[in-house]
Every structure is written in C-alpha cells, then in structure tokens.
C-alpha cells in the first residue's frame, strides 16, 4: 500500500507552518532530494523522488529514488551494497525539496565513482575561467569492479 | 563581464573526472544549488541559479540565485541583511548540481521565516499518514518586520 500525498495547499501559512505534508512535485512528477550523512551532515548526493519512491522511502525507512536516466525506481545501493537507512526526512518551507539524512551501509561511499560524496570537485577561477579542482580523490571501492557483470 | 560556461561534454570521463567546468542547466536554464553553512555543514536552503547568477556568484564571491517566482536575479540577503559569502563552490559528478558552502552575515538566518534553515520540519508517519513535525521553532528575526515596507 503506498501513501497518498495531498496537493499543495494554496495557503502559504499552511504550507510553511502546517502539519500537513503536501510535497510539491514538478512538471515531471519529481521532487529534489538532498542526501546528507546523518552523523556529520556531509552532503553526499542530490537525487529525485517521484511519489512512489517517496512513499517507499517513508514506509520502508530505506532511501528510494527515481532514476531519470533509467526511468525507474532506484533503490540506492542495491548493486553496490551502499544502502541508505533513513535517520530523518525533512522538507523545506515551501515543501518543494526534501532533506534525507541517512546512514550509509557497505563501503561508506555514495558516489558511483567510488568517492564518499558526489561533490568532489571545487569550482575556481583560473585566468578568468571557471575550472574544476579535485578536492577528494579517495575511492572507497573500484567502480569498474562493483558495477561490472 | 560575465563568465562563459561551455556546453556539457558528451564524454562521461571528461564530465566526471575532467577539469573543465561545464554545468548542466535544465530546460529552464537553471541548475540546482544546495546551500550549506561552511562551518558545520548544516543544510540551509535549496535554490536555483541561471548562467548570470552563477557567473555573479563566482566573480563576486557573494551568492546570487535566480528567483523563479520573481523571475529575476536574487542577491540573497539584500533585504534581510543575511548576505552569503561563498567559502567554497563545488559541483557533482555529472555537473548538474552545485554545492555552495557559505558564511551567513546578519541574523545568521537563511529562511525567510526567520529560522536558520529552510528545513525545519520532519516528515513522520502518524496513523498511516505522512505528517510534519516542527524540529526548529527558533526565529532569528521577525519576518513581518524585516520584509515589511
């Protein structure tokens, strides 16, 4: 049985201060999910949920997303073993984004490149151009090994 | 003079491991920006940038966003005084999201409701329904006072 989510209230006060959870899905039926490590608040990844993924996440306590590339429900970590147990789920003032505070199993890595976080490069100005500099090169697993087969 | 951002590379290796910053803007010309406190990593807000806002942010070191409701560049904190100085700007593996690590001036509050973070309510199951529970009620400023006039 999946959860029903009511349409967003037209009342700003209800949306911002009410107890009714009425997530605002975009035109593609998705809502942005910000995923952080519940222990130290590190930002691990940004993903998206549709209604089904959100319902599964709330009901099972394991983070589920919607893969826009594969166009299907994505139980994060099903292949790599890095399942995410949800410690706390929050929404923001206008209820169009979610914060998923998780505990990561397995390799303690979230990015498919093997790094802990998907945010491993800083944007910096170099000679008037915005360039990238790697700030985390540590791979917790070998992606070629994990995702092969 | 604003920065030019090249179109995303078709090469996954270049996108994920290269030094060229080629942010992927969506169909509306926007990219998601996750804003955290540079000191303790707390998630403060989620916003969006267009090319101009991103360029201004990189060039000035002060966070600029694009307001989807007002359809204009939004220098966060211009009204409330809570300007955001960018300590570090990062992008993720596929370069379709940004992490903006900031130091907040003024009231140390980011949410327009006066709270430190926009994520002040937790989603919890109550009698089979997903409901919201306030986890932060502290207002650092009175929004009616700050945004009046």
From TrEMBL, chains A, B:
Enzyme Commission no: 3.5.4.19
Co-factor binding comment: Binds 1 Mg(2+) ion per subunit. Binds 1 zinc ion per subunit.
Gene Ontology MF: a single term: phosphoribosyl-AMP cyclohydrolase activity
Keyword Glycoprotein included in the entry's annotation: no
Domain Phosphoribosyl-AMP cyclohydrolase: 45-120
UniProt entry keywords in alphabetical sequence: Amino-acid biosynthesis, Cytoplasm, Histidine biosynthesis, Hydrolase, Magnesium, Metal-binding, Zinc
Protein localization: Cytoplasm
Uppermost EC category: hydrolase
Keyword set includes Oxidoreductase: no
Cofactor(s) the record lists: Mg(2+); Zn(2+)
Catalytic activity, reaction form: 1-(5-phospho-beta-D-ribosyl)-5'-AMP + H2O = 1-(5-phospho-beta-D-ribosyl)-5-[(5-phospho-beta-D-ribosylamino)methylideneamino]imidazole-4-carboxamide
This protein's pathway: Amino-acid biosynthesis; L-histidine biosynthesis; L-histidine from 5-phospho-alpha-D-ribose 1-diphosphate: step 3/9
Binding site for Zn(2+): 93, 111, 118
Role: Catalyzes the hydrolysis of the adenine ring of phosphoribosyl-AMP.
Quaternary structure note: Homodimer.
Protein name (record): Phosphoribosyl-AMP cyclohydrolase
Species per Swiss-Prot/TrEMBL record: Rhizobium alvei
